[in-house]
Design brief:
Bound molecules: SN-glycerol-3-phosphate
Helix content: 40-55%
Number of strands: 8
CATH class: Alpha Beta
Structural class: alpha/beta
CATH superfamily: Aldolase class I
Shape: globular
Radius of gyration: 20 Å
Largest sheet: 8 strands, parallel, barrel
Oligomer: single chain
């Protein structure tokens, strides 16, 4: 399973990238706003740092304008994935932009039928939002399961990019189900390393090392 980082914060991306944890990056207008950076500048910086796909989202809502914005974003670097909302216009723009050889990430997916349409429109990635479904007492993981089943039933090559990940359990469940990619905020990725028994075991080892006066260098 690939790890994308869901942020536009360069320092956070660089830290995880140095550990080989970054297969790609996803951004959206809210994350760009949070970074306080210019979208074109910060996206270029991310693309220079990371080899994998970097999703940059359009803000137009009408197909022709989305295509124009998508082409402008795609010019930033070869590893741009143009991010389009899952609307009828977004699907039209997806068909055109993928036809021109661009990677497209169709975002704001909340149903398996929407995911089916995105695959038929040639999307490179589909982004089902787990956390936002959980927020309204629906089951985000069930959506990932349904999309996995449907894509496997028909051999769709669109990659399932589990998004709106809020917890380490979302990552684990996405891996169990077989999502192709997860995109998670840096703090969730770092939390994957935590276990209380690791901390407890280390404490004992360090105490015993001190008691026995163990030295390595
Ligand atoms: O990748 C989509 C993600 O940024 C949305 O996450 O937590 O705002 O629902 P969230």
């Amino acid at each position: 399973m690939k790890f994308f980082v869901d942020t536009a914060e360069i320092d956070a991306i660089a830290e995880l990238h140095a550990l080989g944890m970054v297969d790609g990056v996803t951004t959206n207008p809210s994350l760009i706003k949070k970074s306080g950076r210019d979208i074109l500048e910060v996206t270029k910086e991310i693309c220079d740092l990371v080899d994998g796909p970097v999703s940059a989202e359009v803000i137009a809502t009408e197909a022709d304008a989305m295509i124009t914005e998508g082409r402008a974003l795609a010019k930033i670097a070869d590893n741009i994935a143009v991010k389009l909302p899952l609307t009828w216009d977004g699907l039209k723009a997806c068909k055109v932009l993928t036809g021109e050889g661009n990677m497209v990430n169709v975002t704001l997916c909340f149903s398996a039928n929407q995911a089916l349409l995105a695959a038929k429109a040639g999307a490179t990635f589909i982004s089902p939002f787990i956390g936002r479904l959980d927020d309204i007492n629906l089951d985000g993981m069930e959506l990932i399961e349904d999309i996995r089943t449907i894509y496997d039933n028909f051999g769709f090559e669109t990659q399932i990019l589990a998004a709106s990940i809020r917890s380490v359990n979302h990552v684990l469940d996405s891996a169990r189900i077989g999502a192709d990619v997860i995109t998670a905020p840096p703090d969730v990725i770092k939390k994957l390393a935590l276990h209380p028994l690791t901390d407890k075991g280390l404490e004992t080892f360090l105490k015993d090392a001190a008691d026995a006066d163990i030295k390595i260098v």
